[in-house]
Design goal:
This protein has a domain of 115 residues. The chain contains four helices and four strands. It has a four-stranded mixed sheet with strand order 1-2-3-4.
Length: 179
């Protein structure tokens, strides 16, 4: 014999417990943020879409697994510390090479796989590019001028040959003209 119990009180309790669970995931994410102070840690399902700053998104499924599996929590905490280390290390490399970080967004999915995307501007290569662009423009102007001179010379020689051919027809003498 099967019984079905429907009660607004039970539904309210279940809804409240799921609300507490989602709040505890948010609290857990803010607790993990202390492990990586140089990045903004958030809970979410994909990369952060802002075009500035440094972020680390943690999948809610991963946070849930971490809350229930101490070994996974330990491993992921080490990974988050590693993200902090890598962020500082790469920032130092960019600074020493004259590059500027626009944004770096990291993401750890529900399986614990780490992904990262970043955008960097290189100020020195841009300045060098301006110099190279000016040099290329000067060279192309010289090439265009030489091409114009050659085409004028070719046109003049063709005009002389065609003029010689026309005069040869009118005089009636034979003139061999190489084209």
């Amino acid at each position: 014999m099967a019984m079905e119990i429907t009660n607004d009180y039970i539904n309210t309790v279940v809804h409240a417990s799921s609300l507490r669970k989602s709040q505890s995931i948010a609290d857990y994410a803010s607790e993990l943020a202390k492990l990586a102070p140089s990045v903004q840690v958030k809970a979410g399902g994909s990369f952060f879409s802002a075009r500035s700053g440094k972020t680390l998104m943690l999948d809610p499924g991963l946070l849930n697994k971490m809350q229930h599996d101490p070994q996974m929590a330990k491993d992921m905490k080490e990974m988050i510390k590693g993200v902090e280390f890598i962020t500082k290390f790469v920032d130092g490399l960019y600074k020493s090479s004259g590059k500027t970080l626009v944004y770096r967004h990291s993401y750890i999915d529900a399986d614990g796989k780490y992904r990262c995307i970043s955008r960097v501007k290189d100020g020195r290569s841009y300045n060098m590019s301006v110099k190279l662009r000016q040099e290329r423009q000067k060279n192309s102007q010289k090439l265009i001028a030489r091409s114009k001179e050659k085409s004028v010379q070719n046109r003049k020689s063709l005009q002389k040959k065609s003029q010689a051919k026309r005069t040869a027809k009118t005089v009636g003498t034979r003139v061999d003209v190489k084209l």
